[in-house]
Amino acid sequence: VQLQASGGGLVQAGGSLTLSCIVSGFGSDHYTSGWYRQAPGKGREPVSLISSKDDTTYYSDSVRSRFTISRENAKNTVYLQMNNLKPEDTAVYYCVAEDSDLYDIATLIGRLGTYDMDHWGKGTLVTVSS
After folding, report:
1. In this structure, are residues 82 and 126 in contact, taking their beta carbons and an 8 Å threshold?
2. CA-CA distance, 122 to 130, in Å (whole number)?
3. Which residue, 58, 80, 85, 83, is CA-closest to 69?
4. Residue 99 burial (CB < 10 Å; 0-12/13-18/19+)?
5. How far is Cα 114 from Cα 109, in angstroms, rounded to an integer?
6. Over residues 38-48, mean pLDDT
7. 99 with 26: CB under 8 angstroms?
8. Element (H, E) at 81
9. 79-103: pLDDT as tens digits
10. Which strand ranges, in their side-by-side order, compose the sheet holding 67-72?
């Protein structure tokens, strides 16, 4: 499995950025993909996930209503549209994927606070200035 992320950069607070990730190598069309992030001095945390089976989504409380995750099947690409960015969104963002059902992953995140996805891409840095 390969994950190729792009789209990070520097933006002022209140601005927008879109991250993209090309997902390849899964033997099945059914998998969960999305984004985690790691802020300076903190651990990795889930941001948003989407199911390739039915496009159901998961958002962390900190980004719900500001970020939108979507998929484009023809390009095997998952996007994260980030609006109204805040300085606390500054982090390295990682594209992630796993051949598991989103419901199961989201349930574990709810119980444990996080979940270690099987596949990780190289991170892309998002910096939000105040």
Report:
1. yes
2. 26
3. 80
4. middle
5. 5
6. 96
7. yes
8. strand 77-82
9. 999 999 999 999 999 999 999 999 9
10. 2-6, 17-24, 77-82, 67-72
Tell me the pLDDT of the chain averaged across its residues: 96
DSSP state for residue 14 in the 8-state scheme: T
Q: What is the C-alpha to C-alpha distance for residues 63 and 37, in angstroms, rounded to an integer?
A: 12
Tokens of 96: 């992630």
Q: What single-letter DSSP state applies at residue 75?
A: G
Residue 83 CA to residue 106 CA, distance in Å, equals 23
- Distance CA(13)–CA(9), nearest Å, equals 13
**What does the alpha-carbon distance between residue 87 and residue 51 come to, in Å, rounded to a whole number?**
29
Residue with tokens 């190729």: 4
Whether the Cβ atoms of residue 49 and residue 103 lie closer than 8 Å to each other: no
* Three-state DSSP string of 30-67: CCEEEEEEECCCCCEEEEEEEECCCCCEEECCCCCCCE
- Which pair of tokens denotes residue 93? 């963002």
DSSP-derived pairing of the beta strands 17-24 and 9-12 = unpaired
